[in-house]
Amino acid sequence: MSQIFDRRRTTLAAVLGALLASTMAGYAADDTIKVGVLHSLSGTMAISETTLKDTVLYLIDEQNKKGGVLGKKLEAVVVDPASNWPLFAEKARELISQDKVSVVFGCWTSVSRKSVLPVFKELNSILFYPVQYEGEESERNVFYTGAAPNQQAIPAVDYLMKEEGVQRWVLAGTDYVYPRTTNKILEAYLKAKGVADDDIMINYTPFGHSDWQSIVADIKKFGSAGKKTAVVSTINGDANVPFYKELGNQGIKAEDIPVVAFSVGEEELAGIDTKPLVGHLAAWNYFQSVDSEANAAFIDGWHQFIKNDKRTTNDPMEATYIGFNAWVKAVEAAGTTDVDPVIDTLVGTTVPNLSGGYATIMPNHHITKPVLIGEIQDDGQFDIVSETAPVVGDEWSDYLEGSKDLISDWRKPLSCGNFNVATGKCGGNS
Amino acid sequence: MITSFLIDSLDRRGRIVVGLLVALALLVPAGNLLVPEGSAFHVSTYQLTLFGKYLTYALLALSVDLVWGYCGILSLGHGAFFALGGYAMGMYLMRQIGARGVYADPVLPDFMVFLNWKELPWFWHGFDMAWYALLMVILVPGLLALLFGWLSFRSRVTGVYLSIITQALTYALLLAFFRNDMGFGGNNGLTDFKDIVGFPIQAPGTRAALFAASALMLALGFVVASAVVRSKLGKVLVAIRDAESRTRFIGYRVEHYKLFVWTLSAVMAGVAGALYVPQVGIINPSEFDPAASIEAVIWVAVGGRGTLVGPLIGAVAVNFGKTWFTGALPEVWLYALGALFVVVTLFLPRGIVGLWDRVVSRRTKPAKEMDGSGRRAGEAA
Amino acid sequence: MRFLRLLAIVAALAAGLQPALAGRIADADLSARVAALGAGGFDEVETAITDLAATGDDRVPAILDRLGEGELMVRKADGAVFFADKAGKDYRLTDPVTGADAGPAPKATVEKIKVNNRIRRAIASAVGALTLMSPDPAVRRAAAEAVMKSADAAALPALEQAIAVETVPDIRAAMVAARATALLASDAPESDKVAAIAAIADLGSRDALGFLSGYTSADGAVGDAARKAAAAIESRLMLWDMGQNLWYGLSLGSVLLLAAIGLAITFGVMGVINMAHGEMVMLGAYATFTVQEVIRTSWPGLFDYSLLIALPVAFLTAALAGILIERSVIRWLYGRPLETLLATWGVSLILQQAVRSLYGANNREVGNPSWMSGSFSVGDIQVTWTRLWIILFALAVFLALIAVLKRTRLGLEMRAVTQNRQMAAAVGIRTPLVDALTFGLGSGIAGLAGVALSQIDNVSPNLGRGYIIDSFMVVVFGGVGNLWGTLVGALTLGVANKMLEPYAGAVLGKIILLLAIILFIQKRPRGLFALKGRAVEA
C-alpha cells in the first residue's frame, strides 16, 4: 500500500515538474514583443475561435520571417478562456499585468468583449476585436475590425430589394444582442422604405436550437402569401447547420425564398452538404473566393502554415489580418509599443485588405470595409454577386432611438466615444 | 453570546480555518496596498481579484457540501442560487451607474435604452438602494429554495430524481435569463459596473475591501455551517443522509430538517454570488449553466465531501489548477482537468481531506485499520 | 363551356403567332443573342435570356442550363461566350451554337457569367416554357411546375399547345394549373380569371393559397372569388396544420428517444449517472463522418449505403469506448451512483478534447444519402425523408433493445445482475462480464443515435452536450429503469414541445416544459412508470 502510494506521489511530482519546466521555457526571452491571444480553445466557442488563434500565430510567424517589429521578434502568448465569460476577464488581466503583452487579439462573442472591457480600460491596453457585431459601442482601448450593422445588414437588404424584388421579410435570429439590434435597425430601415408591419415576421430562437421543423414550416407559410419573401438570418453559429439542413430537407430553394445570413461563412458551411443550399446568400466583407493577389498569397501562406490545404479562410480571419497589420504599421510609425502613442497613431492608419482595396482605421475605432454579397455554391464557397465601395463602420446606429444623436471621435481634443450632438456633451464613460 | 456560541461550535481544525481566513482578510489586502511592488510579499491586483474569486467559489462549494455532504441532497442546480444572488447584486450595481452609461440615461440601464424600453420594469425598482439589494440577495435565492424544497421534500422526491429536477430548474432559469424580453440583459448580462456603495469599483481600496469581505463572509459561512453540523440538528441531518426512512420512522419530520438546511445553503450560495459579481465585473446567464453547477459539486468531491474544510480546499485547488492550466497548457488542459476528476473519484473517494486524514492517521496510529471504502450508505439510486 | 371555347381560340391564335417551338433560327442570329449574355450586369443577362427564349430554338435550353450551372464563360479578349469545361487548372472552350471546339483557355483569360437567384428563376421559367413539349415526362412535369411558379402570361401560348397534346393525366393537371396562374397574370377578361381562380382553388394546397393571396385585395369579381377560395383553403389547412404539428412532435420525440434510450440502459438500468453519454452519441456521429470520408475517397459509388455501413461501425466504436470506460473507471464505483457522475463528467471532458485534437474544433460534414433527401406530402402534411427514417430507426432500435433484454440470455443476465448482484453472482453469472456488456450495449446504442443525429445536427465536439440534459429529463420523466417509460416519455415531451411552440415560441415553450417536468415529478416522484417493489429502495 505505502509503496503504491509512494509511486503515485513520485509520478505526480514528475508530472508537476515537467509542467513547471514547460511553462518556465515560455518566460525565457525578454527581447521580444509579446502579443496576447485571447480566443477560446475549448467549450462552445472553440468551434469558431480556434481558427482565429491559428490566424494570429500565422501572422506573427510571417511577420517574424520579415524580421519582426522594431527589430524585435514577436512572441505569442496564448491562453484559453474556455468560452467562459468571467474567465475572459481573468485571462485578459493575466495577459496584460502578468505577461505584459503589448496588444491583445481576441474575443468573439459580444459578451466576452463586454467582460474584458473594464480590464482593458483599467490597465490601459489595446484589444483588436475581429468579429461583426451589433455596434453601439466605441471604446478608446478597443479597435473593431469586424463589421458594424451598416457594413453588413443594410447593403444586404438593399440587394434583396433591388435584385430579387423582395417585399416580405422574415427576420430570424438567435435571441441575443447582435440579432436583436440588427433586427431593430432593419425593421426601422424597412419601414422607412415602406414595408408594411404585416410583411415583417420576427422570430427568435435560443442558442444551439436544433429542431427547426416548425420554424421552417412557418417561414414557408409566411412566404406563400403571394409576395416575394426572403429570410434575413442572424442565427448564431451552431444553430445554423440544423437550420440549413431543415431548409434543404423541406425543399425551400433559394429561388423561392432566399436566405441571407450575416453569421454564416466558409467555416460554418464546412459542416454542411451545400448542394441543396446553392443560391442562398451571405453578406460579409470578405469571402475566400475573392479574386485578388493579396488573397491568393494569404490563402497559400495559411495552407502552408496550418499544413492542410483544405482549410478555409473567412471574414473574421481577414479582420484579424487587417487589425494585425494596422497594429504593426502603427507601432513602426510610433517607434514604440507603448499603448498611448500606438492608439493615437492607429487612427488614420491605412493597410491593404484582402479584397484588393484598403482598410482605414477611423476616429471611431471602426474601419472602412467593402460589403460583399455572396451566393452559396455547391463546393461550400461563395460566388460574389455584389460588391460595394468601402463603407465606414457606424458605431451608433441612426436607426435606434437611443443612439441616433451619438457620435464617436477618439482624436484630440474631443476624445470621446459617445458624444451627444444634441446636448453637446460627452456622456457617461469619461 | 451568539458569537461565543458560534465560536464554541468550532473544532480545532475549524478554528484554524477561521483564523486563517481572518488573517487572509487582513494580510492580503495589506500586501496589495501597503507592500511596495517588487517586494516578495507584494500581492498584485491580479492575484488579489483572482483569490477573491476563489473565495466566493469556496463559499459556494461550502453551501453545496452542507446539503450534499451532510444531508445527502445532491444538488445539480446550486449555480442557480449563486447566479440569482449575483443578479441581485448586479442589478444594484447597474442602478449605481446612473447617468454614466453610454446613453447617459439617468435611470434605465444601457441595454434597456438600446432595446427601446421606455421605463424600468417593476422588478428593477428598489435596486438603487443597497439595503434593498442586499435583502434581495438573501430573499430571492432563499424563497426560491424554500418553494422548490417545500414542494420536493414534501412529495419525497429523493436521490437522482431530485438531482435531475434541480438541474431542470437551473436549465429553465438559464433559458429564461437568456431571453432579452425578460429584462435582465439577455446573453450579455449585466456589466460595466462603476461603483459600489459610493466607492469606485476598480479602485485598489475597493478591491481590497471586497477581498476582505469575501474572506470574512466565507469565515462566517464556515462558522454557521459548523454550528449547524455540530448541533443536534446536524446529527439528525446525517441520520437523514444515511437512512432517511429510518429517521422518519423514529419520528423526525425529515422534510422540515431538509428544508431548513436546503434554504440555508441556497442563501449561502446567493451571498457567494453577490460577492462574486463585483469582483469579476460581469454576471450573465452562463452562470446558470448546469455544467457550472456540476463543477461546484466536483470542487466538493475533490476537497472531500462531508467535511467542512474539504469544499474550501477543493474549490481553491481546482480553480487554481484551472487558472494555471488554461494559461500554461491551453491546448491540452481539459485532459488534465478530466483526468483529475476521474483520479479523485477512483483513488480519493474522500477527497484531499480524506487523503490527508489517512496520511496523518497512518503516521500516528499505524495499528488502526482504515475503513478505506469511503462508501456511504443511504445514497439510494 | 364558353371558357373552353375561348381557350381554343386563344390556342389557335397562339399557334399561328408563335414560331414553331422545335424549330431553329440561323446560327449567326443565335450566336449574337448568346453573346448578349456576356455583356453587362444581371439586368442585361435577364433580357438576353428572354430574347433567347423567344427564339424557340431547340438549342436554347441546353445553353441556359449550362448558364445556370455556371459553365458559360466570356473570353476576356473578344467578349465571345463559350461552354467551358474544366481541364486541369484551365478550361476547354466549345462554341455553344455550333458545338465547335474553340481550344483550351487559361483560367485568367476567361470569366464566368455570374448567375444569381433572379437569373436562375428566369432560366427555369424560360427553359420550362421551352421544354413543355419534351418527350421525357419528368422534364415536362418539371417544366409545368417551373412555369406555374413563374406565373408568366408570356408562357400561355406554349402551355395551350402543350396541354393539347399532353396525355399523362397528372402532368396535364399541372399544366392546367400553370395555365390558370399565367392567365391570372395576363390581361384576360375577368370571367376567365374567375374560372382560373376556381381551377387553382381546386388544388387546395399551400402553393395555391400563395397564388390566391396575391389577388385577395383585388377589386370586383376576381377579388371576391380569390377571397372566398383562399378562405376555403385556409380552413381546410388549419386541420392539416394540427396534423403537421403532431408529426413534428413525433419526429422531435423520436430524436429524444434515440438520444435517451442508451441512457435508459446505462443510467436507468445500471444506475450509473452517465454524464459521458452525450459523448458516446458524438463518437457515433464522428464514426459516421469517418466512414463517409473513407467511402468518398475510396468507393464513391457506395455513398448511398454509407449510413448503413456506418451503423455497425458506430455501434462498435461507441460500445468499445463504453466497455473501456466501464472496465477502467465505472466498475470501481458500483453502488455509489453520485460518484459515477463525477467520474463520467471527467471522462466526457477528456473525450471531447480528444475528438477536438483528432478532428479539429470545426463542424464536420456528413452528407445525406439520396434516399434520405427531400420530402413528400401526405395530404398537406409535409414529410421529410430524413425525419421519417429517423422515426422508423428509433422505433426499430427500441424494439431491438426490448428483444435483447427480454428474449436473449444476455438480456436475462443483465436484468439479473442489475436487480440483485449478489444473487446473480451466486447462481453463476459472471457479473463483471455482464456489467461490461450492459454498459457497452447502452453506449453502442448511443453510438447508433449518433448516426441518426449526424443527419440533422452539427457534427462537432459539442454535439453530445446539447442532448445530455434532455436525455436525462426523458429518462427521469418516463421512470428510471423502465424502457417503455422512456419511449412514452420521449414521445410525450416531443409532442408537447411542438404543440406549445406555435403559441409560446421555442424558448418559452421549453421553459414551460421544464417547469412542467419539475411539477410532474412532485406528483409522481418516480416518473411516469415507476418501478415497484423492493428493488426500488436498493
Automatic annotation (TrEMBL), chain A:
InterPro entries, alphabetized: ABC_urea-bd_UrtA, Peripla_BP_I
Superkingdom of origin: Bacteria
Signal peptide: 1-28
RNA-binding keyword on record: no
UniProt entry keywords in alphabetical sequence: Signal
SUPFAM superfamilies: Periplasmic binding protein-like I
Keyword Nucleotide-binding annotated: no
Name of this chain's protein: Urea ABC transporter substrate-binding protein
From TrEMBL, chain B:
UniProt KW keywords: Cell membrane, Membrane, Transmembrane, Transmembrane helix
Xref: InterPro entries: ABC_transp_permease, ABC_transptr_urea_perm_UrtC, LivM-like
CDD domains in the cross-refs: TM_PBP1_LivM_like
Main location: membrane
Subcellular location: Cell membrane
GO molecular function: branched-chain amino acid transmembrane transporter activity
Regions that span the bilayer: 16-35, 55-85, 129-153, 160-178, 208-229, 259-277, 297-320, 332-356
Highest taxon listed in the record's lineage: Bacteria
Membrane topology: Multi-pass membrane protein
Cross-referenced NCBIfam families: urea_trans_UrtC
Protein name (Swiss-Prot/TrEMBL): Urea ABC transporter permease subunit UrtC
Species whose genome carries this gene: Pleomorphomonas carboxyditropha
From TrEMBL, chain C:
Protein name as annotated: Urea ABC transporter permease subunit UrtB
Classification via CDD domains: TM_PBP1_LivH_like
Coiled-coil regions listed: none
Membrane topology, record value: Multi-pass membrane protein
Localisation: Cell membrane
GO molecular function annotations of the record: transmembrane transporter activity
Signal sequence, renumbered to the chain: 1-22
Gene Ontology biological-process entries: amino acid transport
Protein keywords: Amino-acid transport, Cell membrane, Membrane, Signal, Transmembrane, Transmembrane helix, Transport
Transmembrane regions listed in the UniProt entry: 246-273, 305-325, 337-355, 388-405, 472-496, 502-521
GO CC annotations, alphabetized: plasma membrane
Gene symbol of the encoding locus: urtB
Family classification: Belongs to the binding-protein-dependent transport system permease family. LivHM subfamily.
InterPro entries linked: ABC_transp_permease (IPR001851), ABC_UrtB_bac (IPR017779), ARM-like (IPR011989), BCAA_transport_permease (IPR052157)
Domain of life: Bacteria
Principal subcellular localisation of the protein: membrane
